[in-house]
Design a protein that fits this description.
The protein is an alpha/beta fold. 36% of the residues lie in helices and 17% in strands. The chain has 17 helices and 16 strands. It is globular. Keywords: Cell membrane, Lipoprotein, Membrane, Palmitate, Signal.
C-alpha cells in the first residue's frame, strides 16, 4: 500500500492491481515491466535506474554489483545514477518531476521523509514472503527496524557502521600511554588526552589529545555511553529525553575537554595547529568506522581503532549509521526493482561491499570474513567494526523532520556549548524544548 502523509490526506492516488498485490505506477526511468513465463514465474526483463552517492571507489563497487546482477538476469539493465553532491536535494527534484530513480540508496532519515510523502513502495509483504531475508541466523535483522515507517518496511539494508575511537599509535608510544581497549573508561580517555596534549615553547598548541566538534553523532556517542537517550525510542520516537542527568553530564564532559582540561582545540587553536588527526596533530578522534577506508592510505604514522570508552556500571551503547535501498512507487518495473534491491543483500553483493571496507554488512558471516576484515591498510583491530554492532543504537531518529530538528535546534545550541557561551544544562534544556516542538510537528 502507499504510505499516507501524517496529518494530511493524500489525494489523487492512482492504484493498479498487479498479480494480486497493490502497486503504484507513474513516470520513471524504468522500461518494460516483468513478464510471466509458462511456469507462472516472473521473468525479469527491462530497465531500472539506481541512484547512489559516495566516493569513486564506492561508485566502482556499485558498478561491479550491477554487472553481477545483469549477468545473473539476462535481458535486464540497471542504469546507475551517480549523484556525488547534493544528493537528497536532487532526488527531491526528481520526485517532483516524476522522474525519481526506481531504486534509491540512502539512510533511514531520508526514506522516512519520502515515505511520509507517499513516494515509496511498501515492502512489508515482500519481506514477509521472503524467508531468507527474515533469517536471524544469516542477517542482523534488528537493523530492519530503522527502515520502517508507520510499522511498514520501506527498504532493504546493506549494513551499518558504529562510532569508534581512532588513535595515533606513534603519539601514544612517544607519550608512554597504553593503547585504548574495550574496557577503557571515559576517565582513562580524559587522562590519556591530557598526557597527549603538548604546548610549544611559544605557548602555542603543538599537539592535542582529542578533537571535539558539534557533530550530532559525536554528542550521541558521549550521551549513549553514559546511559542517556535523545528519545524514548530512536526508531519510533514519542517522547524527548534530552535534558536528562546523563545527557547533561555528557555535554559537560565535551565542554570540559576543550575549556577545563584544554586537551581538545578551540576553533582558534585549530587554525594555529594546522591540521587534525589525519595530519598527525591530534592523538585521538571519534568517528564512524566507515572512515577506515578513507584513512587506510595514511603513511606518516601508525594508527588503530578501538571501541568507544565505557562508564562503569552502565551498559555500553554506541550510535550507528544505517544504510539501505528503497523503491520509488512510480517505478514501472516493480518486480525488477525489488529483485535488484534484494540482490544488495545477496552473498555476491555483500562480499563486494564488505571487501571494500565501505560498510559493515548486514550478512553476519560475510561481515566476519577475512575478505571484510583484512582489507589493505586496515588496522589490526578492524574486527571492532563487527563486535560493536551488538551494542549499536540507530543514530538518526525516525521522524520526518529529523534533519530540520538538527539544523534549527541541535546545531545552534551545540555551537554555543562548544564556544563556552552556554552551560551544559541550558543547552540540554533548550534542545529538549526545541525537540519537543519538532516532535509535535512530525
Amino acid at each position: 500500500m502507499k504510505f499516507l502523509r501524517k496529518k494530511t490526506i493524500i489525494a489523487n492516488v492512482l492504484v493498479s492491481i498487479l498479480i494480486g498485490s497493490i502497486l503504484f505506477t507513474g513516470c520513471s526511468g524504468s522500461k518494460t515491466t516483468s513478464s510471466s513465463n509458462n511456469n507462472g514465474k516472473n521473468e525479469l526483463k527491462g530497465e531500472i535506474s539506481f541512484s547512489t552517492w559516495g566516493s569513486l571507489e564506492e561508485k566502482k563497487v556499485n558498478e561491479d554489483i550491477i554487472k553481477l546482477f545483469e549477468e545473473k538476469h539476462p535481458g535486464t539493465k540497471v542504469n546507475l545514477q551517480y549523484i556525488p553532491e547534493e544528493y537528497t536535494t536532487k532526488i527531491d527534484t526528481l520526485f517532483l518531476g516524476k522522474k525519481a530513480p526506481d531504486v534509491i540508496y540512502g539512510h533511514p532519515k531520508y526514506f522516512t521523509k519520502w515515505a511520509s510523502q507517499g513516494l515509496l513502495m511498501d515492502l512489508t509483504e515482500k519481506f514477509n514472503e521472503d524467508k531468507e531475508l527474515m533469517n536471524d541466523s544469516k542477517f542482523n535483522t534488528k537493523l530492519y527496524d530503522a527502515f520502517k515507517y508507520e510499522g511498514k518496511n520501506i527498504a532493504t539494508v546493506n549494513g551499518a557502521d558504529t562510532m569508534v575511537v581512532y588513535y595515533n599509535k606513534d603519539l601514544f608510544d612517544a607519550a608512554g600511554v597504553e593503547y585504548p581497549n574495550e574496557k577503557w573508561t571515559w576517565e582513562q580517555f580524559a587522562e590519556a588526552a591530557k598526557k597527549l596534549t603538548i604546548m610549544g615553547e611559544d605557548g602555542k598548541p603543538k599537539q592535542f589529545g582529542v578533537s571535539i566538534d558539534g557533530a550530532y553523532s559525536l554528542a550521541e556517542t558521549f550521551m549513549f555511553s553514559n546511559g542517556g537517550k535523545w528519545f524514548d525510542d530512536m526508531n519510533n520516537p514519542k517522547e524527548v529525553k534530552f535534558n536528562s542527568k546523563e545527557n547533561i553530564e555528557a555535554l559537560q564532559m565535551m565542554q570540559d575537554l576543550i575549556f577545563k582540561y584544554k586537551v581538545a582545540p578551540t576553533s582558534s587553536d585549530s587554525k594555529v595547529l594546522g591540521g587534525g588527526f589525519d595530519a598527525g596533530k591530534i592523538a585521538m578522534t571519534i568517528d564512524g568506522v566507515w572512515s577506515v577506508v578513507y584513512r587506510k592510505d595514511i603513511k606518516d604514522f601508525k594508527w588503530g581503532i578501538a571501541e568507544i570508552p565505557t562508564v562503569p556500571g552502565k551498559e555500553k551503547r554506541i550510535p550507528a549509521l544505517y544504510a539501505g535501498y528503497a523503491i520509488s512507487n512510480t517505478t514501472k518495473n516493480p518486480d525488477l526493482a525489488w529483485e535488484f534491491s534484494k540482490f544488495m543483500q545477496s552473498d555476491e553483493a555483500q562480499k563486494l561491499l564488505a571487501s571494500s571496507g565501505l560498510i559493515t554488512v548486514i550478512n553476519k558471516k560475510i561481515a566476519n570474513s577475512d575478505e571484510a576484515l583484512n582489507i589493505k591498510g586496515a588496522p589490526e583491530n578492524h574486527k571492532v567494526r563487527v563486535t560493536t554492532l551488538d551494542k549499536a543504537i540507530h543514530n538518526d531518529a525516525v521522524m520526518v523532520n529529523w534533519d530540520e530538528s538538527l539544523t534549527k535546534v541541535f546545531n545552534p545550541n551545540m555551537d554555543l556549548l562548544l564556544t563556552n557561551k552556554q552551560s551544559a544544562k541550558d543547552t540540554a534544556n533548550k534542545i529538549q524544548s526545541g525537540m519537543e516542538e519538532m516532535l509535535k510537528q512530525n
